[in-house]
């Protein structure tokens, strides 16, 4: 009886762990209440943006590509028109590096991409380096919708991620019960 209960509890804990792992994969989303006109672009700090275009993107793009990123304290950096078809920017399977200047920010926790044009474009990922923060990579691997700021805002999840979720607490409870039943 105890062995059957232990096996059942282990299976439940395993399934909960799998569902927790699956739900933690982040997907880019349209920006909510994002207003580029609020950005102050007085540049005193430099950032490096490394953008990798997916091998399943269009061969090249003539689209206009801009990015904006920042921290949880309202420091926003805006880089308009990174595209340059004459220099073969954003071709399929390519990596492009940009030096961007803007206000000094702490840990970068959001990044949005804006694309307008007829061709389409699929970035694989965007990596941002800044002197006040660790490098951060935002994985897209999806075509960017036209005329829409699209990306990630992890600023609010940073403070909540230190608190265990309800599923984690349930897993801890099940493991505790298993340890108790084994004694």
Automatic annotation (TrEMBL):
<feature type="signal peptide">
    <location>
        <begin position="1"/>
        <end position="21"/>
    </location>
</feature>
<dbReference type="Pfam" id="PF06232">
    <property type="entry name" value="ATS3"/>
</dbReference>
<keyword id="KW-0732">Signal</keyword>
<dbReference type="InterPro" id="IPR010417">
    <property type="entry name" value="Embryo-specific_ATS3"/>
</dbReference>
<protein>
    <submittedName>
        <fullName>Embryo-specific protein ATS3B</fullName>
    </submittedName>
</protein>
<dbReference type="InterPro" id="IPR036392">
    <property type="entry name" value="PLAT/LH2_dom_sf"/>
</dbReference>
């Amino acid at each position: 009886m105890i062995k059957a209960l232990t096996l059942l509890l282990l299976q439940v804990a395993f399934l909960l762990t799998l569902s927790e792992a699956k739900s933690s994969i982040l997907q880019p989303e349209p920006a909510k209440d994002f207003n580029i006109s609020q950005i102050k672009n007085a540049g005193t700090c430099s950032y490096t943006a490394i953008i990798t275009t997916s091998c399943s993107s269009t061969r090249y793009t003539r689209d206009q590509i801009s990015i904006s990123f920042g921290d949880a304290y309202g420091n926003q950096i805006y880089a308009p028109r990174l595209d340059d078809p004459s220099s073969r920017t954003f071709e399929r399977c390519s990596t492009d590096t940009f030096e961007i200047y803007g206000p000094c920010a702490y840990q970068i926790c959001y990044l949005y991409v804006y694309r307008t044009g007829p061709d389409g474009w699929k970035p694989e990922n965007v990596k941002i380096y800044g002197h006040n923060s660790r490098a951060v990579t935002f994985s897209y691997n999806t075509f960017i919708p036209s005329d829409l700021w699209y990306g990630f805002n992890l600023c609010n999840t940073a403070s909540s991620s230190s608190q265990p979720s309800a599923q984690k607490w349930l897993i801890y409870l099940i493991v505790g019960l298993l340890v108790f039943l084994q004694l």
